Amino acid sequence: MTYNLDHFDKKILAILQQDASLTVSDVAAKIGLSTSPCWRRLKRLVDAGVVKKQVAILDHNQLGLDVIVFAEVKLEAHGHEALPNFQKAVEKLPEVLECYTVLGEMDFLLKVVATDIHAYERFLRHLLSLPAVREVNSKMVVSEIKCTSELPLDLLA
Fold first, then answer.
1. What is the side-by-side strand order in the sheet with 133-140?
2. I need a labelling partner for 130 at 20 to 30 A (CA). Which of 4, 28, 141, 156 fits?
3. pLDDT tens-digit series, residues 83-98
C-alpha cells in the first residue's frame, strides 16, 4: 500500500535521506515547522513503515572492501523448496548486500562485496556449493559511477 505524502512529509524525508543524524528540532527548523508537529509527522512515517530504519552509510573502500560484484544466479529447478531454501541461504551470507529475484535467463541478482578477488573466489565456491545452484555469472565492478540510497521524492505526485 502506498503512503500518501504531503509537502512537509516529502521535505522531512528528503532531509533525512541526506542526514538522518539531525535532531527533530533541526529538521523542523529546516522545513519551517515547530518541533512537535515535525516529531508527530516523523513518528507517523516511521510507524507506517515509510522510514524503515536510520543507519550510517559506510565507505566500503575506506574499510578495504574494494571488490563489488553483481552475481547472476540460476537455479537447477524452481521446485517447492528450491527458491525459499536459496533465499534463506543467501540471507545468511554477510558478503551479499542485496538480493533480488529477477525475470529473464537468471533467477537472482546479488550485489556482493569482498576484500579482494581471492575472497570473492572463496565466496563464489561457497555459493556454487549451495543446493540447487546451477550457474553463477559474475560481473565485477571496475568503477563506481553512482551509488545512492536516496529515493527521488520529487518524482512522486
1. 96-101, 108-114, 67-75, 133-140
2. 141
3. 999 999 999 999 999 9
Joined together, the cell numbers standing for residue 153 give 521524492
Beta bridge partners of 138: 71
Residues 63-122: tens digit of each pLDDT: 999 999 999 999 998 778 899 999 999 999 999 999 999 999 999 999 999 999 999 999
Q: Are 12 and 27 in contact (CB under 8 A)?
A: yes
Q: How far apart are CA 41 and CA 146, in angstroms?
A: 31
User: Which residues, at least 6 apart from 123, have a Cβ–Cβ distance to it below 8 Å?
Assistant: 93, 95, 112, 114
Cell of 64: 578495504
CA 92 to CA 96: how far, in whole Å?
9
**Residue 100 β-bridge partners:** 109
Does the pTM exceed 0.70? yes
